[in-house]
Amino acid sequence: MASTNDLKNGMVLDLDGQLWSVVWFQHHKPGKGNTVVRTKLKHVLSGKVVDRTFNSDTKVDTASVDRRDMQYLYHDGAGFVFMDTSSYEQVTISDETVGDAKNYLLEEQIATVAIHEDNPLYIDLPASVELLITYTEPGLQGDRSTGGTKPATLETGLQIQVPLFITNGEKVRVDTRTSDYLGRVG
User: Fold this and answer.
1) Taking 80 as the threshold, does the pLDDT of residue 146 lie above it?
2) Rounded to whole angstroms, how far apart are CA atoms 154 and 174?
3) N or C: which end of the chain has fewer CB atoms below 10 A?
4) Which residues touch 58 (CB under 8 Å, ≥6 apart)?
5) CA gap 94, 101 in Å, rounded
6) Cα(92)–Cα(185) distance, integer angstroms
7) For the chain, what is the HEC assignment?
8) Residue-averaged pLDDT of the chain
């Protein structure tokens, strides 16, 4: 149990049996009346974001979410196999739980796995990752000055838009939240 006065970004709350992560919070003192705490909460499993207002000093249940660094090993058909880097224990995480993170995962990559009561909840990736372009159409001579883009397939199978001057075999930095091209590597 915690008070709404103790809320912090990233804290996970257990509200009516559902797990919600605090994205944003603000203490608000109107001219009259009691202080309230306004929050933006993100549903841990579905990703849905809602606004919720609590009276100040309301008791809320917190959920203990363990965030562990794990190394992605391989996909075995039943799910993604990760190894805990501290205990070397292997865990299979379902495709649904991994979700869109699969578009950015390479074998032997380290990711943060959030676990609640021995159930993996979601995968936290860095804000950007470096991936190899496996296929893109060649750019035409003279295309380098315009701001046009073309589709490119990454080594994970994800297709993104890249500038026309990018060629096969180049490493690019990709935003894991938006799938946007951020630049060349090296």
Assistant:
1) no
2) 10
3) C
4) 3, 4, 37
5) 12
6) 31
7) CEEHHHCCCCCEEEECCEEEEEEEEEEECCCCCCCEEEEEEEECCCCCEEEEEEECCCEECECCCEEEEEEEEEECCCCEEEEECCCCCEEEECHHHHHHHHHCCCCCCEEEEEEECCEEEEEECCCEEEEEEEEECCCCCCCCCCCCEEEEEECCCCEEEEECCCCCCCEEEEECCCCCEEEECC
8) 89
Let me know: does 56 contact 37? Beta carbons within 8 Å. yes
Record the pTM.
0.73
Give the count of alpha carbons within 13 A of 185, CB side only.
13
Residue in 137, 136, 110 with CA at minimum distance from that of residue 124: 110
To 5 degrees, how large is the angle CA 157–CA 135–CA 112?
35
Q: How does pLDDT run across 68-109, given as a tens digit for each residue?
A: 999 999 999 889 999 999 999 999 999 988 888 999 999 999
The two three-digit tokens of residue 133, written as one number: 């372009």
* Residue 120 neighbours by CB distance under 10 Å: 20
CA distance 18 to 181: 35
Residue tagged 């809602």 (tokens): 50
